[in-house]
Amino acid sequence: MKAIRRFTVRPVLPEPLLPLADLARNLRWSWHTETRELFQSVDPEGWQAAGGDPVRLLGAVSGPRLEELASDRRFLRRLAVVAADLDDYVHGGRWYQSHEDHAELPAGIAYFSPEFGITAALPQYSGGLGILAGDHLKAASDLGVPLIGVGLLYRHGYFRQSLSRDGWQQEHYPVLDPNELPVSLLRDGEGAPARVSLSLPGGRALHAHIWQARVGRVPLLLLDSDVEDNDAGAREVTDRLYGGGSDHRLLQEMLLGIGGVRAVRAYCGITGHPDPEVFHTNEGHAGFLGLERIRELEGEQGLGFEAAVEAVRAGTVFTTHTPVPAGIDRFDRSLVARHFGPGAELAALPVDRILELGAESYPGGDPGVFNMAVMGLRLAQRANGVSTLHGAVSRGMFAGLWPGFDPADVPITSVTNGVHAPTWVAPEVVRLGARQIGAGRTEDALSVGGSQRWDAVADIGDQDIWDLRRVLREQLVQEVRDRLRASWLQRGAAEAELGWVDSVLDPDVLTIGFARRVPSYKRLTLMLRDPERLRALLLDPDRPVQIVVAGKAHPADDGGKRLVQELVRFSDDPRVRHRIVFLPDYGMAMAQKLYPGCDVWLNNPLRPLEACGTSGMKAALNGCLNLSVLDGWWDEWFEPDFGWAIPTADGLGTDEDRRDDLEAGALYELIEDRVAPRFYDRAGRSGLPVRWIEMVRRTLVSLGPKVLAGRMVREYVERLYAPAARAHRALTADAARDLAWWKGRVRAAWPRVTVEHVEALAAAPVGGTAELGATLTLRVRVALDALTPEDVEVQAVAGRVDPQDVIQGGRSFPLKPTAGPDLEGRWMYEGPLALDRTGPYGYTVRILPAHPMLATPAELGLVAAPVETDAAGDAGAGGGVLLR
C-alpha cells in the first residue's frame, strides 16, 4: 500500500553526540575532509548508502550504534576536535576581517542566483551557473566575506537523466523532502516559520517559507512556495528548476527577486546579521530585486521613482554569464504588465516605468518583450562578464544600451570565474601536497591562493606525481564501470550480458574527459565528425586513447537529445565500447571523480560562445591538462607549457559544417601528433613520461593560484563590492534626489550639446605626417546648451587608426575650458595632445556627462562627438581630425 503522507523519524542523539547534528547541518562538511571522515566512521556502510550525506546518515543510524559511539572515547575526542575546528572556522577572523580597508568594505552583501551547486546532497543546480554560485559562497565563507545567498528551493530540483535502450535521454524528477535535506526552516522569535508573500493578479497571493542552509559561515536562504496557504498553482511555483512556461518562470523570478529581498530583511531582523549594502545578481533571473528595493525606498525614505532608481543602482552589481542571446530570459511585455499592474505586486510603482527598465529600446531590439538582462544592467551601476574574452563579447552584445560609444567603452568589466579547490581537488592530491609541502601550506594554497604557496609544487618528484596520476585514473576506471553497469541495467540489459563492462577502460591508457551541458554550441559530437579517424585513435595498438563523456540536454531541447543519442550509439559499438563511454546523470558527485581521473580535459565550443568554462579549471587543479579551443578562461591563460589550443576556423560566417570539419581535423591532429606521443613517451632512464609530468607540474604551479574561487571573490570584493558600498553610503536620500534631478537636466539638454569646431594651434602635421614626441595643442568650440563645464568632460581621444580610420586602443586626454560662455552659450576648450605612438595616428573629440556620483562617464549612454571634417582637415560642425 502507498502511504498518504511521508515524514522522517530521526533518532535522538545521545548528549555526547549532539555536536554531530551541528556538523551535519553545516555544509562545510562537503569540502572538509576531516568532517566527512568522521561521519564515515559512524557507519561506513550507512555512509555509502546515504551517498555521503550526513543528514541521511544520522536519520538511518541505529540506536545501539549511537550508544556505542557515545561511550567511545576515541570517537568523542575526534568529534570534539572537528566541532571545535568548525566553531573556529565560523567565528574566527579571516581575510576579510584583516583587510587593510576593512572599514570601507560592505558590512553585508546579498548574492542572488536561481541555482546553487553546493553538494550533491542539496540538488538545487543544473550546470555551470549554479556550480559557480556554490563555489562563490564557499570561497566567501573561507575568506570571511559577510555574504547572504538567496535562491529558491525546488521540490523536484533539476531532472535526473537516464537513457532508453536506443540511447534517447529520459528525464525523471524525484520528489525532494526539505526535512531530509541539510536545511532548516527560518523561524521568528516565537518559533513560527518566517515567510514572505507576493500579490498576484485576481486577488491571489503567493506565499513562501524560507529554508536556511549553512554554507560554512555563509547563510543560504531558499524560498519554497509549497505552503498550505497557497492555491494549487502557487504551490507549484518552485516545483522545478528551469521548468514550465513563461508565466511560471516569471513567477519564479518574481519570487526570487522580490521575495528574496523580503527574505533577506526577515533573516537580518531575526538574526541581527547586518543589512546588505550591496546586492549582487548572478544573471538576470533575480533582476526584480531592484524593483522591490525601489518600493522600499519610496515608502521608507519618501524618494520618488527616479531618485530611488539611482539609490538602488549605486549598491547593485550585475554579472552576466551568457554570450548567447537565447540564454537570456525575455517575457512578453503584456505578461509583465499584468503581474505588476493594479491589484498585483508592487502596485505603487508605475507600470510604464517598470516596462521601460526591461525594454529593448535599441536598434535590433524587440519592442514587444521585457528583457531581464537589460533590466539587470539598467538597475546596476557595476556590471561584469566572467572572463576577459566574455567581457569583450558582452560589451558588444549589450552595446545598444550605450549608443554612440565604441564597444570598448561600454561599462561592463570582467572578473574571470574561479573554482573552489577544497571542493574539487581529490583527497589524494591534497594528501600528496600535505606530505610534500605541509598541511597548512596546502590548505592555504587551496583556499587563499598566492603563487608562492603553489611554487612549492615544483619540489614534488616525478615518481610521486606519476604514481598519483595512476591512482586517480584507476579510481575513475572503477567508477566508470560501476556507473556504466547501473546505466545498462536501467536501459533494460540483463546482468548476464554485461560481462564486457569489467574490461571497460584501462588505468594505463591516456584518458580524455568531456562533460558539460549539451547546447549545440558546446559541440558534444565534434569528436564524431570523422568516426573512422576517432576509432583509429581509440584502438591505436601503440598509443590508444580512451574517452569518458557525460552531459545533459535541456528537457525541451530535442536537438541536444539527438546529440546525446548520437554519442551513445557510437559508444555502444562493441568494437569501441571499452574505449569510449557515455555516463548519464552528470552531476557533482560524478564530477568529483571525473576531473581527477582524466589526463586531458577536452573543451571544443564555438568560439567565442563559452563564457568561461570552469570544468577545465577543476580538472587542472588535479593535474589534468587542458585541450581546448581558445575561449573563456583558456583564451586568457593558455600557455604551451601546460596544455594545447585547438585551432579555430574563424571567419567562415554561416558555413558551420565547414568550420566543424576543419576544427575536428585540428583536434584529431593534435591528439595524434602531440598529445598521445607525449603521454606515451617513456624514453628516459626512469621509464616515466617526464615531459608529460613536467606539463602537469607547470599546470599546478602556473594555473593553480589563478583558477581559484578565492582569487575571484577577492576581486569581486575589491573591484566591485567595495566601490558599490562606497557609492551606496554616499547616495543619501538627498544625494539621490540631486543625482536624479541632474541626470534629468542633462538628458533634456543633450540633443543640443555639440562639438562645433576643432583646430590644432601648434606643431600641426605637415603633409599628413608628424614626429614622434611632438605635441599638438587643440582648441575646441562646443555648445553646451543649459549645461556648464561642471556638468561635462570634453576629451580628445587619440591612438593608432586602422585602414577604415577607426581609432584602435585610444587614450583619452581631458581638455580644459578657457573661455565662455559667449552670447550663444558656446565654450572654448584647449589642451595638449602628445603624439606618443608611431604609424597611422588619429584623434577626435567628444563630450561626456560628468558627475562625482557616476561610476563611469558612459553611465548615461550619452556622448557628443564630431560627425564630419571640413576641407582644411579641421573639424567643423562636429567634424573629426585624422593624422597619419
From TrEMBL:
Keywords: Allosteric enzyme, Carbohydrate metabolism, Glycosyltransferase, Pyridoxal phosphate, Transferase. GO terms for biological process: carbohydrate metabolic process. PROSITE patterns: PHOSPHORYLASE (PS00102). Its cofactor is pyridoxal 5'-phosphate. The keyword Ribosomal protein does not apply. Residues 13-122 form the DUF3417 domain. Its EC number is 2.4.1.1. InterPro entries: Agluc_phsphrylas (IPR011834), Glyco_trans_35 (IPR000811), Glycogen/Maltodextrin_Phosph (IPR052182), Glycogen_phosphorylase_DUF3417 (IPR024517), Pyridoxal_P_attach_site (IPR035090). It catalyses: [(1->4)-alpha-D-glucosyl](n) + phosphate = [(1->4)-alpha-D-glucosyl](n-1) + alpha-D-glucose 1-phosphate. The modification N6-(pyridoxal phosphate)lysine is found at residue 618. It is an enzyme of class 2 (transferase). One of its GO terms (molecular function) is pyridoxal phosphate binding. Phosphorylase is an important allosteric enzyme in carbohydrate metabolism. Enzymes from different sources differ in their regulatory mechanisms and in their natural substrates. However, all known phosphorylases share catalytic and structural properties. Belongs to the glycogen phosphorylase family. This is glycogen phosphorylase. The lineage of its organism: Bacteria, Bacillati, Actinomycetota, Actinomycetes, Kitasatosporales.
